[in-house]
Amino acid sequence: QVQLVESGGGLVQPGGSLRLSCAASGSIFSTHVMAWYRQAPGKQRESVAHITSSGSTNYADSVKGRFTISRDNAKNTMYLQMNSLKPADTAVYYCKAYSDYVGDEYWGQGTQVTVSS
Question: Closest Cα to residue 7, out of 98, 91, 112, 102?
């Protein structure tokens, strides 16, 4: 049984920082790509950042230079360090694990991030 559990969301002022965590159970962490997505009210879910098992990363243009994705394979945990936060970053942030090779994907339950003064 694969479970992804996000934590670290909250309310932060513009310009502030937050670090999200995604803890994974099961045997997929070392073999699957890990990713962060977000969904703002009234908008479609969008990709934020991805990291492969070997550590290669890519980011949405809207977060490049402000967000950093990382993973600790020993702890089965992925992180998203978010700096210089803007009100436009307000959304529910979801953790995803997927493998195009195996053809499966898993989602966490989401954590709310609100950027407001």
Answer: 112
